[in-house]
Amino acid sequence: xxxxxxxxxxxxxxxxxxxxxxxxxxxxxxxxxxxxxxxxxxxxxxxxxxxxxxxxxxxxxxxxxxxxxxxxxxxxxxxxxxxxxxxxxxxxxxxxxxxxxxxxxxxxxxxxxxx
Amino acid sequence: xxxxxxxxxxxxxxxxxxxxxxxxxxxxxxxxxxxxxxxxxxxxxxxxxxxxxxxxxxxxxxxxxxxxxxxxxxxxxxxxxxxxxxxxxxxxxxxxxxxxxxxxxxxxxxxxxx
Lengths: 115, 114
Hints:
Chain A is mainly β. Chain A contains no helices and 12 strands. Chain B has no helices and 10 strands.
């Protein structure tokens, strides 16, 4: 079975400062990992994906994430936060084998950006 | 192009009543998923349809929940004898067969059971 754990339920940053949203995964095989974002009153949107190619993946809106097998982590970062980044972010793992196609979501991290 | 649509956007029902929630996936997407998002439980997988294959129902929380997908397109999630703990946002998503990780989500149906 695979799972993800988001280490912070809330993160608060000032506009223009770096963003770090932490995610650890557990998987019995090489996982496919993703970050989804949910803005208030909007649907979930894929932010970026890791599918065993490059370990540093870039997504939309300047976000990127690095897959670190030794640390079983897939943290999301952005060098400079913007007010429009305020949203809830979900770390997600894709199921394999009998769980193929199923996404397992972390509990979510709410990002607040202060002016 | 059109995204995933869901109806109704909001539904208030009395405990014990049955409800039907509808999902229209993106045209050409063979895979369709239902999730539930509720406080304290996060986002839970409910059911997954892939083409004409038998659906993966492993996430349905009880036999009061069922779903069907007609003609490989529109899907209906039915909850019978609703309970207050069924109150949540029900999300539908769709994807192509070979990119199941890239799921496109609808806006959801907010269900409130009184």
